[in-house]
Amino acid sequence: MREYLILFCRSVIAYFVLLFFTRVMGKKQMSQLTYFDYIVGITIGSIAAVASVDKDINVFEGSFSIIIWSILTILISEVTLKNIKIRLWLDGEPLVIINDGKVIYKNMKKARYNIGDLLMQLRDKDVFYITDVEMAVLEPDGKLSILKKAQKSTLTAEDMNIRKPKPGMMVDIVLNGNILSRHLQQINKDEQWVIKKLKSKNINNIKDVIFAGIQADQKMYVVTYDDSIEIDL
Questions:
Q1: I want to staple 140 with a disulfide (CB 3.0 to 4.6 A). Which of 55, 69, 92, 132 is the partner?
Q2: Which domain holds residue 29?
Q3: pLDDT confidence of 153, banded at 50, 70, 90?
């Protein structure tokens, strides 16, 4: 019984120390989690967990370690507010991933950000065509900020009583140099058809294609290591 009482006291102490310094460090830990914040958060949480259950560690020593980590985090936050170079080194900087409907692959590679991540985050923002995007920026916290092209506003089309074509999802047909045969069956096409369309734009090697997809507007959108293009079907 005494052991459970000790464990209870240790947990309560570690909990309130962690709660206090989480509040002191501010809401950035929750709302804008960068690489640096991620590492700090995991480390402080691990220290609190060990201090609350490991009998070989003095709970006050564990709490003192939490205090040191928290104070260092607060001090570094103050420094980065005044020094932009240090802030960019710790948090990273925004990267333009799409500009005028074209994917900038070198920036994706720099961020170790693949085409699947891009498509997923676009769909999460109700964007199903890359060509609808004027600009997309990958923020330091990993979120994708999107600016749609002005002419793609659905409100404007409805206000002018313009009948828009039926929307649909893009069908992925090439991913990282590999033709997706099952997806081609959905649109009744074969691999030779894909190769022929790519050659029409001087893309002779399928391995040069990072991504290719068929849009509902009957256009193929292709991303290579050097450029992004549209091909009429």
A1: 92
A2: 2-90
A3: low
Burial of 97 per CB tally in 10 Å (0-12, 13-18, 19+): buried
Q: Are 221 and 230 in contact (CB under 8 A)?
A: yes
Among candidate residues 109, 99, 126, the one with its CA nearest the CA of residue 228: 99
CATH number at residue 137: 3.30.240.20
Alpha-helix residue ranges (DSSP H) falling in the chain: 2-25, 28-31, 35-53, 59-82, 84-91, 105-110, 115-124, 154-159, 181-186, 191-199
Pairing mode, strands 209-214 and 144-148: unpaired
Give the closest residue to 224 by CA, choosing from 95, 100, 103. Answer: 103
Q: 51 falls in which pLDDT band (50, 70, 90)?
A: confident
Q: How many residues does the chain have?
A: 233
Look at residues 90, 116, 139 and tell me which one is the last residue of a structural domain: 90
Write the CB contacts of 2 (distance below 8 Å, at least 6 apart in sequence). Answer: none
Tell me the torsion sign for CA atoms 119, 125, 126, 132. Answer: negative
Q: Are residues 44 and 98 in the same domain?
A: no
- pTM to 2 decimals? 0.57
Query: How many domains would you assign to the chain?
Result: 3
Whether 202 has a pLDDT exceeding 60, the answer reads yes
